[in-house]
């Protein structure tokens, strides 16, 4: 249960002076963050060092990683940059819709074979022994979650893949098995009970057959958003982590964690395509209201499976492979940063950002066909959708990685706009006068002597859209952080996430602390600003990490 009521509204006060803006939206030029600076009662437990992880569509794994003879150096460099900052690699979930048409062939020469017919439709995928050598290219210590094929309803098939993985992966590399991708979307219409009737004996038998000593299965991997409000007819019979656990998924103690998928927007049909626009994406109110739908499930799952158990095991901004001009922009980078920080502030353990390409027949009305997805963080190979490149959103994972740093004891809380009594974000309608444009998070490090008195870092986000085509001057907001500082004489350090505008799609115009990572490696001189002033100026469409 949450008991945050009395604190919720007192954490931030707003300047009530608004300037008319040439951009149409109201600008909030000054925001004084209000204390106390002490560890908030709603703070998360220690953040997982692999908080910002990846899901790679099974059929596209070779496009991303290459193989032993032809490793994809761009992907490897980008993943290594993240590990260098936290000491722990991002986790990789190998899964997605194609996992449910993937099989194992111990005699296959190539690492991964996609059966694609003359119309370009992918029918199925087969992995062979060389696949594990591709996985072996990942930075040392990378943990793997592998989705086994449930939809084909071949227990022997799922067992053979699980066995091959246990034998083929490095010792200790397997983090979890999933059994089925998005089973709530299968044509056979699983109920929570019929899902568990199949899922549970398989998970139990595979665990026994392979001698898995600790609970290794990740339950659910479901796709459909929680119905709202929670007493809507049908809400409690949705297939999800909570209903699967209630139906007995963990009766033999095989469930180590759970996963649900989030895609806030979609281009699977024209109605939703119309809503998948940049101004909707780059809005804290909207993304927090969306993630808040999961709060009751997160609370329930953590009570049943432990603190570190609720994962967003596959996510991105726009389902059916993203939208050009939206999910490949710097606006996506701001959305991604706020999504990870907000999700972790409501106790999601890890988020696995999905990478892959459009598949035929995801829906009969989908926008995208062929190539790589417009929401991918980088293009490891050339495709019809563009050359090899790194998208602006990669820089957000660097921001997260440096926020975590080498600490394993960092706790997060959303200090602006803060929480309502029931734990949900304060929305525009309920008093966030920045209309979802300004966001602030604090980080408290339990390993520091001052752990309960002051945060060690702040993340300040200004989501107001400024496009590279907009006329200057670029609007700014001054955040007053004095309430969170130990001493006003101490020097603070700032690192910025920047681009010429939210509409920028070029990785080479996007910088983290002054450096571009468009080639996979840092280019340019690292820019750290030092100041003693408590006023931190953040431009429209910019985010700043403050080291206190
Ligand atoms: C997150 O979990 C911690 C510890 O388990 C708890 O104290 C806190 O209230 C939770 N926060 C939210 C927003 O649910
Ligand atoms: C490795 O990749 C190359 C280039 O795509 C391909 O020709 C080769 O068959 C692959 N090798 C294996 C073992 O999959
Ligand atoms: C893959 O699909 C093709 C075409 O439908 C089929 O002939 C083949 O048997 C399938 N392979 C596997 C391993 O299921
Ligand atoms: C699981 O194992 C039990 C005991 O070996 C067996 O009776 C049962 O048929 C197996 N279930 C499946 C789905 O293979
Ligand atoms: C919290 O209450 C607000 C209304 O005050 C509602 O909009 C929101 O959905 C609630 N959140 C949860 C998780 O119940
Ligand atoms: C952000 O979204 C909320 C909820 O839809 C809306 O009320 C608010 O006006 C939006 N903010 C901007 C700047 O458009
Ligand atoms: C910025 O550009 C996007 C399209 O890329 C557009 O939807 C949005 O309205 C523009 N915003 C401003 C403030 O110009
Ligand atoms: C950035 O990359 C684009 C191609 O994606 C190229 O046309 C442009 O010259 C590059 N700009 C810089 C500053 O390197």
UniProtKB/TrEMBL annotation:
Keywords recorded for this protein, A-Z: Hydrolase, Signal
Signal peptide (from-to): 1-24
Gene3D superfamilies associated with the record: Glycosidases
Hydrolase as UniProt keyword: yes
Pfam families named among the record's database cross-references: Glyco_hydro_79C
Domain Beta-glucuronidase C-terminal intervals: 441-545
Protein name as it appears in the record: Glycoside hydrolase family 79 protein
Organism: Hypholoma sublateritium (strain FD-334 SS-4)
Upper taxonomic lineage: Eukaryota, Fungi, Dikarya, Basidiomycota, Agaricomycotina
């Amino acid at each position: 249960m949450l008991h945050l009521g009395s604190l919720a509204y007192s954490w931030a006060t707003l300047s009530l002076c608004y300037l008319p803006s040439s951009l149409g939206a109201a600008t909030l030029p000054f925001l004084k963050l209000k204390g106390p600076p002490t560890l908030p009662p709603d703070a998360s437990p220690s953040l997982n060092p692999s908080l910002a992880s990846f899901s790679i569509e099974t059929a596209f794994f070779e496009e991303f990683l290459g193989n032993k003879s032809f490793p994809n150096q761009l992907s490897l460099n980008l993943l290594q940059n993240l590990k260098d900052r936290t000491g722990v690699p991002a986790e990789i979930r190998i899964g997605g819709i194609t996992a449910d048409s993937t099989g194992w062939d111990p005699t296959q020469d190539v690492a991964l074979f996609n059966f694609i017919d003359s119309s370009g439709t992918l029918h199925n995928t087969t992995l062979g022994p060389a696949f594990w050598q591709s996985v072996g290219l990942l930075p040392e210590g990378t943990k793997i979650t592998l989705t086994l094929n449930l939809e084909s309803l071949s227990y022997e098939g799922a067992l053979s893949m699980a066995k091959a993985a246990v034998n083929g992966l490095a010792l200790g590399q397997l983090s979890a098995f999933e059994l089925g991708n998005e089973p709530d979307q299968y044509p056979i219409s699983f109920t929570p009970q019929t899902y568990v009737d199949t899922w549970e004996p398989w998970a139990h038998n595979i665990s026994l057959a392979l001698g898995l000593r600790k609970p290794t299965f990740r339950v659910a991997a479901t796709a459909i958003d929680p119905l709202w409000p929670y007493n809507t007819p049908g809400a409690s019979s949705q297939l999800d982590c909570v209903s699967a656990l209630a139906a007995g998924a963990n009766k033999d103690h095989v469930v180590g964690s759970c996963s649900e998928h989030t895609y806030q927007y979609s281009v699977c049909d024209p109605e939703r395509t119309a809503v998948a626009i940049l101004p909707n994406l780059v809005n804290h109110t909207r993304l927090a209201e969306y993630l808040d739908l999961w709060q009751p499930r997160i609370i329930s799952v953590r009570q049943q499976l432990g603190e570190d158990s609720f994962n967003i095991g596959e996510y991105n901004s726009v389902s059916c492979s993203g939208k050009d001009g939206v999910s490949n922009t710097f606006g996506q980078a701001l959305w991604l940063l706020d999504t990870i920080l907000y999700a972790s502030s409501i106790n999601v353990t890890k988020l696995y950002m999905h990478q892959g390409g459009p598949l035929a027949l995801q829906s009969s009305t989908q926008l995208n066909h062929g190539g790589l997805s417009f929401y991918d963080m980088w293009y490891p190979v050339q495709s019809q959708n563009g050359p090899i490149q790194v998208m602006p959103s990669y820089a957000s994972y660097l921001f997260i990685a440096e926020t975590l740093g080498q600490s394993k004891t960092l706790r997060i809380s959303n200090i602006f706009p803060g929480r309502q009594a029931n734990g949900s974000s304060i929305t525009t309608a309920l008093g966030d006068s920045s209309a979802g444009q300004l966001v602030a998070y604090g980080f408290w490090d339990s390993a520091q002597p001052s752990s309960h008195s002051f945060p060690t870092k702040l993340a300040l986000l200004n989501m107001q859209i400024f496009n590279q085509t907009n006329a200057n001057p670029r609007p700014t907001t001054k955040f007053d952080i004095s309430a969170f500082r130990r001493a006003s004489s101490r020097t603070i350090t700032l690192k910025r996430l920047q681009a010429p505008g939210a509409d920028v799609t070029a990785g080479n115009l996007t910088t983290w602390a002054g450096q571009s990572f468009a080639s996979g490696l840092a280019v340019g001189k690292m820019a750290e600003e030092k100041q003693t002033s408590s006023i931190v100026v953040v431009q429209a469409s910019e985010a700043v990490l403050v080291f206190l």
